[in-house]
Structure formats: C-alpha cells, structure tokens
Design brief:
The complex is a heterotrimer of chains A (about 500), B (about 220) and C (about 325). By secondary structure, chain B is mainly alpha-helical. Chain B is about 75% helix and about 0% strand. The longest helix of chain C is centred in the middle third of the chain and has 32 residues, at about 125-155. Classes of the chains: A mainly alpha (about 500), B mainly alpha (about 220), C mainly alpha (about 325).
Chain lengths: ~500, ~220, ~325
Amino acid sequence: MSFLILAVPVVAALLMITTRIIGRMHSISITASGTMLVSAIPITRDILAFGKIESSFMGGILYLDALSVIVLDIVLLIGFLACIYSVGYLNREIILGAFDFKRVRFYYALMFSFMFTMLLALSVKNVGIMWIAIEATTLASAFLVGFNNDRYALEAAWKYIIICSVGIALAMLGVIFLNLSAMATLSSSAQLDWTALMDNAGSLKTSSVRLAFIFILVGFGTKAGLAPMHTWLPDAHSQAPAPISALLSGVLLNSAMYGIIRITAVTNRNMGSSEFTGNLLVLLGMLSILTASVFILTQKDYKRLLAYSSIEHMGIIAVAIGFFTPASIFGGLFHMINHSLTKSMLFFCSGTILQKYGTKQITKIKGAIKLLPYTGTAFLLGLFAIAGTPPFSIFSSEFSIMSAIFNEGDYIIGSVLILLLAFVFAGIAIALFRIFYGTSGTETPRPGEINMPGTIAALILLLMIGTMGLLMPGQLEELISNAQNIIYGS
Amino acid sequence: MSDIFDTLSVLILMTAFVLMANKKVKAYIKTFRVQSALIALSAGILGVGAIVDEGRYDLMVVCVLIVILKVIYIPGLLHKTYAGIEYRTEKDFILNIPILVLMSCSLVVFTYFSLSASGSINEGGIDPQLVNTISVTMIGLLFMITRKKAIGQIIGFLEVENGIFITAMFSTQGMPFIVDMGIFIDMLTAVMIMGVLVFKINITFESINTDRLNKLKG
Amino acid sequence: MNYLIYIVLQIIVIIVFAPLINGVIRKIKALSQKRKGAPVFQMYFDLHKLFRKTTVVSETSSWIFKAAPLVFFSTAVTAALLVPVSTIIPQPLTLPGDFIVMVSVLALGRFFMMLAGLDTGSTFGGMGSSREALISSLIEPSIMVSLFTIALITGSTSLSKILFVVNNSETRLPLQVSILVFLALLLIIIAETARIPVDDPSTHLELTMVHEAMILEYSGRHLALMEYGAAVKQLTFITLLVNILLPLDGMISRAGIAAILLSLLFYAAKVLIAAVLIALIEINSVKLKLFSIPNLAALAFILSFVAFLQYFVLGGNHV
C-alpha cells in the first residue's frame, strides 16, 4: 500500500507526457491523486494501530511513523484538491488563450513530479535521501514557479532556485556533520538513519550535533520560509499559478519544517535540554512573525499577502517547536495541519479571483462577494480564519500554543507574540475591508462562478477548518499525540 | 599521507581565492575547472586507498564522475550558454576585489575559530582539512552574494557544492554511495535549470544583470 | 677568518653575478620570441659603458639626486649580505641583523629612489614615484607575513638561523606552507623587481613605466649604480626564495672547500630554475592596469596569510 503513494505520481507524470488530449490529462490527474488519497486511509489506520510502517524494499529505506503520516496525509489531501481545482483553472486559462495543451502537459508532469519528490522526502528514514528529495522539490517546482514566463515570474523563479539551492547546500553541510557525530558509535549503514539516531541520541558527539543543527536549521529554514532566509517566498508564492501556490504554501513548507522537527528532536535528546535549539528556533520564529507582520500591513497584492501570512504561520510553528513542551509540540503539529488547509483554500479562492478580475492588486478587486458568491464568501471567511478568528481551527491551534507558552512562564515572548499577531490581524483586516466593502469599479466582469470544481474544493476545505475548530476528531488527536510522543520522547 | 590531503585542501582553498579575485567569465569557468580537478584528484587518491584497504570501488566511481561532470561537462555547458550572451568581464562591483579577497580571508579565520570553539570535531585538535574545505564553501557563498551577473551566481553555487563535497570526502571518507549519486543528479539538474532560466532571463530582460531582477519588492 | 670567507663569498656570488641573472631572463624571453637576443653578459658591457660616460645632472635637482644612487646601491648590497647563499659555512656564525633589517634597509633604498624621481621636478618622475609608492605599500605586508610565518615555524628571525634550520636534513617546513610561501614570494619578486605583470622593464612608453620612470633622468655612473642596485636586489630576493624553499644543502654531508663548492653549484642551479620561472611568468602574462595591481597584491597577501593560518591550524608547532 505504501508503494502506491510513491509509484502512482511517477506513473501519472509519465502518462502525462504521452497523451495529447487535455481532457484525458485531467482525468489521469484526478484518478492518480484520488488513488493516492484513498491509499492514505489504510496507511493512517496502520500507523494508528502499529505505530510505524517499515518495508524492506530497496534495503529498508521506506519508513513511516506518526509524524511523517501527519504531513503525508496533508500532502495527499491537498494534492487531490489541487488537482480538482486545476481542472477548472486550466480550462479557464485555455479559454483565455494563455495555455495550449503542451503547457498543460508540462504543468501536470511537473506537478506530479513535484508531489513525488515531496512524498519521497516524507517516507524515507535515511537523512541523505530525504535531503536529495527536498533538493529535488526545489528543482521540480522551479519551472512551476516561473510558469507564466513573464518577467516577474522569471525573477521569482530565479530567486527561488538560487536561494533555495544555497540553503539546501548548507543543509547538506549539516547532514555531513550529523554523519560525523555518529561515526564513532553507529555502524556505517545506520549513521544517517533517523530511527537509529533517535534511539542512540545520547551517544552522539554533541559538538558535531550542535553544528549539524545550526546548518540544517538554516538550510531547511530557507526552504520553510523562516526569516531572514525568506526572501524568495513572497515572490515565488505570488507568481506561481494558484494551485501550485497552494501546494507550495500548504505542503512544501510543511515538508521542510518536518526536517527541522526531526533534527530538533535528535539534538534535544542528545543535549538533554531544549535550550540551545529552543533559543534559535524561537529567535527565527519571532523574526519571521515580525517580518511578516510589517509587510502584511503595507501589502497591495493579495497573493503576496497570503505568502507573507505563510511566513508568519511558519514562524509560529517554529516558536511552538522551539518551546518543546508536550503541549506546545501538540499545538505546533495541529497548527501545521490547520495552516495547510486554510492557506490552500485561500490560494484556491485567490486563483479564481485573479482569473475573474485579471489583477492582483487589492485596491482593484471590489465587491468580490457580489461577483463570486461562493468563492468570495470562502475568501472572506478564510481571511478571518488565517488571521486567527474563532471558530476556525487556526484560532484553536494558536490558542493552544499560546497557553503552552504562558504555562511555561515565558510571559515576555507570549506577550510579544500576541502583539505581533494583533498587527497581522490588523493588516489582514485592512485588506479585507478593501476587497469586500467597495462598490464595483467601472469595468466589472460578469458575475458568476467560473471554476465550479475549484470552488467546491475550497468549500470542502472551509468546512473542514470550520469543524476542526470546534471539535477535533478522536483519531486525529491520537495521531498527533503519537507524533508528539515520537518527538518529545515519552 | 595526511600531508598530501592537507596540501590538496590548501590548494583547493587557493583556487577559491583565485576565483574570488577574478573578473572575466572565462576565468571563472577555468578556475572552477581547476578546482574540480583538484577535488577529483583527492577523491581519486582516497578511492585508491579504499580499493587497496577495503575493496570498495565507490570512491573511484565518484572520482570518475566528478571528472566527467564537473571538469568536462558542466564547464562546457556553461561555455555554450555564455557563447550566446554578449558578456565577457564583470565591471560592476559593490565592493572592489581586494576587499572581497580580504573578506574571504576573514571567513577562513572565522571558520577556524568557530570550529575550535565548538569543540574538536575529530580527536586531537582541529582538523586543518576541515577548516579549509568549509572555508571554500563559505567563500563560495560570499562569491554568490557579491556578483551581480547570473553566471557569477551559478559558479558560486557550484563552488558551494564543491566545498560541501570535499568536506564530505575528507571528513567521512565519502557518504553512502546512493547519497553521492543523488547529490550529483541534483547538482546537474540544478545547473541545467539555472542555464535555462538564464537563457530566458536574457531574452526577457536583454541582459543577465540580476540587478534588473528587482521589480518584485515589498 | 670564517667571517672573511663568508663576506668574500657573498660579495663574489651575489654582487658579481647579479647582472648575469638579468641577462639570463632577457635571453629566455628573446628565445621565446624566436629572436637571438642580446648575449647573456650584455649587462656587464652596459654597466662598463655607463661607468665611463659623463653624467648629466639637472640644475633644478638637489643633493638627493646625487646621493640616491649611492644609497640605493649600498642598501642593496647590505641587504644582499644578510641572505646567505650557502649554509655550509660552519656554525656558530650568525650575522647581526635579520629579515626585518633586510626589508627595512631595502625600504630605505626604495625611499631614496622615490625621492630622486621627485627631485628633478619632471612629471614622469613624480608619476613613477607615486606608482612605486602604491605598489610597494601593497606588497610589503605580504613579505612581512610570509617571512614571519617562516620565522615562527623555525623559531628565529635571523636569516642565517632560518636557513640553517631549514637545510638541516631532519627538519623541513610543512608542505602546504612551503607551497604557499613559494607562490607568495614569487609574486613578491615580480612586484619588487618591476617585471611583467606589474611593470614592463623594456618599455619605452613613459606613461606605462613605474621603475624606469624614477630613473629616467639618470645618466652615466649614477644610472649604472641604479641598475646595478636593482639587479643586486633581484638576486637577493631570488636567493631568499630558493634557499628557504628549495633546501638542497642538507644533502651535503661533507665539510670543507669541496662542500662549499658543491653547495654553490646547487645554489647556481636553483637560481637558474628561479630565473626560468620568472621568465616564464613574464612571457605568459600581460602587464596589468595600474588599478588591477591591488588585486595581485591582495592575492599575494592571501597566499602568505593562509600560510600563516596553516601554521596556527597545525597547532603552532616549531619544526
């Protein structure tokens, strides 16, 4: 079963290259992503029952545990919804004359390769292969970011590939140091194995592990969008086509954060306390939230606004992981899930709005609810959600993180965090009022939804984040607890 | 024996400095070639040692791959990409070259003090090879930041990869084979993608001055 | 008695043979251009001719103009006496003075040469002096750092002691330090002796001159002394380079006259190699723009600085 999630995207990408009919491409895409999503169900069930899935395929590389499954499920869910959304989105672009079948083929092939690399990163236990997969995600998505081929997209793609490749190269230095730390005590096949490193964390050489942590934090932090390495993110996420932005923001950032969480767990277990990693993580996290809040207040482009919001939420997750108490880790993981769902929904809606109005400027889209009733509402509620309004799930996770911080007794950081979140809320609210409370301008597009499948996808996500804010399903809670135990060590 | 590796690591560090002090595109590519050749030489010596001691062939394969990819193929690819672009010498610098060379120097000092402050990595004091090879990586980063043209950034990225590769080589006697292969493939694909992007940038912006890539602000 | 042998040996070898090196380099350059070139001993004939010619002294110049050639030549000879050509002279013979004295004495000579360039009031002289000031101030840190590194490793700043330690068959400099200091000293020699790529010794275009511009106004025996001093300085630096970094004297196990002659033979061979190297560098490079010379100087500095760093990284051990 676990192979399906790796084999299907590869097969799908290859199939895409062979076909020329756009309708067939759409159906391949939906089938493939649907299959992948369906195969997530038995995987999750197995994890809940047994704790981990291992397979001796290719020398025992494949490995899934609760932590990887959380991120994996999000990838598969949002991948499926993104494929549904893409159908309507691409059809609209074809009508507008921007894409022909070759572009669509290229799009789908790259998208499935992209998903394959992300899934690979999450389902291996060898740090080296995880690194290779994360580097490959940058490569697979570079052309997706620059898909529109205009000067802004090219600029975004160039910055993306340069900054992320450099970051990942530094992460490799960290992996080398990690390998060095284990050279004395572990056999050569186990030196880069997450499970072996976790189990034997006490016997690793601390000085090397510390250096490894710093480099991997900087390297994967670049990919996760933590300040000050975040400079590629607003450009890349705003210039990419909407479903790709959803994948980048909602899924890729999580995968990078997954790497950071793993190395934090190993380092903390090795050093016996979370002070070293905590200081660094909290520093970078707070810096990210600060940067994001400053830029959100002055944003004129709604897609860039969403991108900065991603930086902010990744910062919150970093702070949560940095505090490293069971409650804060639980909150951080829950927040990862909520942020992905909400942000993807927002990007789906923004893509529809862009196609409707033809502009990314906040001041130029007025009266969105009248023209796009469902999408507009979803966008409105989504912006409230991402700013942290109850009853949406982001509010719950932010609240639990905050209470964990205050329970720890760190009032300063807690208060600064609240202040910064208030700034972000203010910035988003300003943008909200601009979008939804104007009268339509002179050139109004015709009212009516243009991407029904996409809108349905957005509404599904809206429903999910609405209910999860009020009631967490028991299995989800159990899954997150298991993951928390893996990280914290019961 | 380790004397040879000390000397090789110093020579590789020297090529990093020479790369920093250069202004012409052809010189960038030539210096990169020399650096990759030195790295291949180190891999080769290590590989011969591995074959003799343990019967492992993977390091020799890695050495051959480095020669094929980084000494022959990638510089050729870069030359071809640049043949079409009218640009030979970099004239615009934020900081002039002697200052950059001195900054690279201070990076070496900084690396040395960081490594010694964080405790010895290997027993018996700081491994001089490690200081040199990590400095190469840092100097590559500095190179990337201070060049405005896209070719400079690509060469800087390749130098960073070189530095990391030689660090892995000297410290852990090479990573597991599959990881090395993956790194090669990643690097090759990255360079190809960068090449295509530079080509597109040249067409769209009519220059490869990455200073012009400044429209997305805020 | 030993002192006498030593001084006689130094004077004969360095001072008498200095112009020969110029001739060798010039010959190699000519051969590479498929010319026959001037004979190798040409500089002796030139010096002989110059000493017999009358000197023309500008009326607007001061005593510095007449003193400068003497100062330059004597400082060059003094520096030459500080760098032993052979280490077979039996110990304990250490000359007073070390490489710091050598560098400072040479700096004194250079200072007077720069003053002389300014003295006549001609524009080209002033231009040459200012350029020389730039180049020498950029190169001097490299000399100091590389020689200090060698001194730290060998435990003394006296050149005789350094050479004695280095040529001892049991001890040797670490290989990477040797390579780096060798390259640094090679670049320094090019800068100090005003060769391509820093300055073209055979140019006749005043706007491109550095060293030649300062001695433009000289004639007769003054010019002879200036040229001779430059040649002696060149051989001094070459001796420094080859004796520290290509130590072959350790192979000689006998003592007495035969050993001294053998070491001198080795020395001659080493100097020839160095001359060929310098000639090759001259043949294969072009003269740099004046504003690119700081890049070269930075490179020389880096070479010496990294050698210095290697000394620390290796644990700061004496050899």
